[in-house]
Amino acid sequence: MIREMILQTYTPAPIEGTFVGKHIVTVDQFAHKDLEILFHATMSLRKRVREHDRGLTELCAGRVMASLFFEASTRTDLSFQAAMRRLGGDVIGASNGVQFSSVYKGENLADTVRAAGCYADVIVMRHPQQGASFEAAYYLDKLNKRIDNPTVLISGGDGIGEHPTQALLDMFTIFDRKKKFDDLTITLVGDLRNGRTVHSLAKLIARYGVTNTRLAFVAPDSLRMPENICEIINTSGVETYETDNLMDVLDSSDVIYWTRIQEERFENPADYDAIKDRFIMTPELLKQAKADAILMHPLPRKHEMGTQSDHDVLDEDPRAVYFEQMENGMFVRMALLAKVLRGVYV
Ligand code: ASP
C-alpha cells in the first residue's frame, strides 16, 4: 500500500546535466544531454581502464558502495562491484547475502535501506517488486535529512518495472556499434511484458529523441509491451510496430534485442510452458538478418538462444554483441558512480 502510494507520488529528480547526489531509479530522469554527458564519460573511462591508468582509483577513493540484492544477479552485481573497485572505492554487503541480514528477521525494506544508508555513500539495490527502488529512494531522502553523509540509491532492477542502468549500457552499446541512433530499426523480441530491460530501453530511446528510427515489438499476444510504455513512445513521436511474427521485421532490423521469457514472473507454470518456445534465436535464424545487424541480449540466456552448441556458434558471429554489452556495463556504471558520487568526469 505504502509502496503504491510512493510509486504514484514520488518523482525522482531529473538529471538535467547534474548527476551528483541524485538517485537513479528510472530512465525518465534522463534527457538527451544527460546521455551524451554519460556516454562521453564512459568512453573516456573505458580508454583509461584499457590503458591501465592508475589515476582512476582516485575518482572514488574513500567512498563506499553497499550492494543490496534481494533478487539474483550476476552481471549487474559484479559489474557494479568491479566498477566501484576500479574507481578506488570499497564495496560492502551482508556477508552471506541480504537474505541473511535482518531481512531474515522480518525487517522491512525501508529500514534495511536506511541501515545501508548509514554506512555507505551509494546503495545499488535490486528487488523483485516493482516500485521498490522508489520506496528505497523515498526513505533514503528522509534519512539523508538527518545524517551528515547523504546516500544515493541506484536501482539494479525493480521487479517487472525498470532496469535503468541496463538501458544505459544497451544504448551505449548501440551507439558504439552503429555510431548513431537515427535511421535504425530496433527490434525487441520476447517477453516484452515482464522484461524490465526492454521497458527501460524503449523509453530511453524515445527520451533520447531519434529521427527516422522505429521500434519494432515482437512478442506473443500475452507478452506484449505494456500499453503505458507504448503510449509514452508514441507520444514522443517514435514510430512503433507491433507483431507476433518475427519474419515481418527480421531482415530489416539493424538492432535485434533478444530476451528471455521471464519464467519467475509467471504465476501459472502452464502459461509459461505455453509460450516458452515461441521465439528461439538460432544460427539458422540469424542468417536471415542483415549482414550489419547487431544481436543483443541482456543475459542470462536459456533456451531462447537455442542449445549450448547454438550458443557457441552464435557467439562467434561478429553480429553478436552481448559480451560487449556485458563489458560496457562496467564502464557505464563506472561513469555513473563517479558522477553521482562526485560529479566528476566529463
Ligand atoms: N538480467 C536482466 C534483468 O535482470 C535480464 C533477465 O534477467 O532476463 O532484468
Architecture overview:
With about 350 residues, the chain is α/β, with parallel strands linked by helices. The chain has 2 domains: about 1-160 and about 325-340, Aspartate/ornithine carbamoyltransferase (Rossmann fold, 3-Layer(aba) Sandwich); about 165-325, Aspartate/ornithine carbamoyltransferase (Rossmann fold, 3-Layer(aba) Sandwich). Helix content is about 40%, strand content about 15%. The protein is built from 12 helices and 9 strands. It has helices at about 1-10, 30-50, 75-85, 110-120, 130-145, 165-180, 195-210, 225-235, 270-275, 285, 310-315, 320-340; strands at about 65-70, 90, 120-125, 150-160, 185-190, 215-220, 240-245, 255-260, 295. The strands form 2 sheets. Strands 7-6-5-8-9 form a 5-stranded parallel β-sheet, with helices on one face. Helix 1 packs across helix 5 and helix 6 packs across helix 7. The longest helix is centred in the last third of the chain and has 21 residues, at about 320-340. The protein is globular. It starts with a helix and ends with a helix. The model has no long low-confidence stretch (mean pLDDT about 95). Bound molecules: aspartic acid. Aspartic acid binds next to helix 7. The site of aspartic acid has 6 residues, from helix 7.
